[in-house]
Write a structure and sequence with these properties.
Layout lengths: L8 H17 L19 E5 L3 E4 L3 E3 L6 E4 L11 E3 L4 E3 L13 H10 L8 E11 L2 E9 L4 E5 L7 E4 L5 E3 L2 E3 L6 E5 L5 E8 L8 E5 L9 E4 L3 E2 L2 E2 L12 E4 L18 E3 L2 E2 L8 E5 L4 E8 L4 E4 L6 E3 L5 E7 L8 E4 L5 E8 L8 E6 L15 E7 H6 L14
Parallel strand pairs: 4-9, 5-13, 20-27
Antiparallel strand pairs: 1-7, 2-7, 3-4, 6-14, 7-8, 8-14, 9-13, 10-11, 10-15, 12-14, 15-16, 17-18, 19-20, 21-28, 22-23, 23-28, 24-27, 25-26, 25-29, 26-28, 29-30
Helix pairs in contact: 1-2
């Protein structure tokens, strides 16, 4: 479905630049950058916001008897749909300058335009934008647009094609309803001229792990296959959950190295032997990456394998500690025992990764400290039972390290 031409913010920016100079001369302040807030007009969490664009203004006709103005909206190549509905009520949006300052939704800017005598784009174009929020257990797409007349007819909002698609998993979140109710119908409505309308499209709640969606089927807002990042950065930190990482889990090779007896920390012949560790590109020992989910925090640790068969071990006392002292305890090491030393069999020169699973660390923690307490001494060549503390690790940096732990097959040249 082709769209009519959309004017972007570039033209508006030219006017705003001149208005900024005018405002300085008059001792006024013109706010230009979009302000970020996590709370939407209806109290829900904001997932994403659009910039403010402009559409060509439809023709407005005046009824000579009543003096009322009527705008027949521009077609969107769906004239074959004959169903139409009169909306009893439409939502009016207020205080959008909090979310779109320095735009044609901002009364401060409109006042400066009028005061300076500058050309007013709103005489020929209609400003519009959108906001995606979490509200009442649903995902709501708010579609904002200026009211150009007393009455608007043949307006188009959404149809059964309208949906959100998780760009990582492909999960489709289909349209549930709209306000006003007008799915697959042209809608006619009345509202105060120059007010801003808030059309709402409701979808199922997005998964907490969703980072990016594509919006389909909202043509008047030019949302017809647009990728949108949701749960964006908040105070310099990523404000969304990760998907659960999938590192290769080691395979048990031998229940005991060479002596069929119960595990004895002091007798390495009773230790288990594992193989097929998750291989990675060369990284320094103890390089880390973190994945945060609502249920758990996953911490990958890089290790260099110096011998064909090398021992490792983790204990239940290991934890992550945030800046407030809150502790997040080790739950498991994927595919491997806790409180037992074991051998990993591979090639000398392998670089491998282990995945530790801790209690969930909240998203608002900027740093974390890794603590591995000193262990009980044991009898083995090169034995090391000393503890390890890595303080004030930048959680955002650890999340950026995730790609370092992609599987990298071993390459051997004979």
């Amino acid at each position: 479905m082709k769209l009519f031409r959309i004017i972007t913010l570039s033209a508006l920016a030219i006017i705003c630049a001149s208005l900024s100079m005018y405002a300085q001369q008059q001792g006024q302040q013109l706010r230009m950058s979009l302000e970020y807030t996590t709370v939407g007009p209806n109290g829900g969490r904001i997932l994403a916001k659009g910039t403010v664009g402009m559409q060509p203004r439809p023709e407005v006709k005046v009824d000579p008897r009543t003096g009322k103005e009527t705008a027949v909206w521009l077609p969107t190549n769906n004239a074959w749909i004959k169903d139409s509905v009169w909306a009893k009520d439409v939502h009016l949006a207020e205080h959008l300058e909090r979310y779109f300052p320095g735009t044609l939704f901002d009364p401060n800017l409109l006042h400066l335009i009028k005061q300076s005598g500058s050309y007013n784009l709103s005489d020929e174009y209609v400003p519009f934008s959108w906001m995606l929020c979490e509200e009442g257990g649903e995902t709501v797409l708010h579609c904002y647009i200026k009211m150009v007349a007393d009455v608007v007819t043949r307006f188009w909002l959404a149809s059964e094609e309208t949906c959100l698609v998780d760009r990582e998993t492909g999960t489709q979140y289909r349209i549930r309803r709209t306000e006003p109710e007008c799915i697959r119908k042209h809608v006619c409505f009345k509202a105060p001229k120059d007010s801003t309308l808030d059309f709402r499209i409701y979808f199922p709640p997005l998964a907490e792990t969703t980072r990016e969606v594509t919006i389909f089927g909202v043509p008047l807002w030019s949302l017809v296959g647009n990728p949108v990042t949701v749960r964006p950065h908040y105070e310099g930190r990523v404000n969304y959950y990760d998907t659960i990482p999938q590192l290769r889990q080691p395979r048990l090779l031998l229940n005991h190295l060479s002596e069929d007896a119960p595990y004895d920390k002091q007798n390495w012949n009773t230790w288990k032997v594992y193989t097929d560790a998750h291989l990675i590109k060369p990284l320094p020992d103890n390089t880390m990456a973190i994945w945060q989910t609502p249920e758990a925090t996953y911490l990958a640790i890089a290790q260099e394998q110096n011998w064909t068969r090398e021992y490792f071990g983790w204990e239940t006392g290991e934890m992550l500690v945030d800046e407030s002292g809150m502790q997040y305890h080790l739950r498991e090491v994927q595919g491997l025992p806790i409180d037992e030393i074991f051998f990993m069999e591979g090639n000398a020169g392998d670089y491998i990764a282990y995945m530790l699973v801790f209690d969930p660390v909240p998203l608002d923690k900027p740093t974390i400290t890794y603590v591995a307490p000193a262990g009980e001494p044991f009898n083995a060549w090169g034995a090391n039972w000393g503890g390890l503390v890595l303080p004030n690790l930048d959680v955002e940096a650890l999340r950026r390290n995730q790609s370092l732990f992609n599987y990298h097959p071993r390459e051997v040249v004979e």
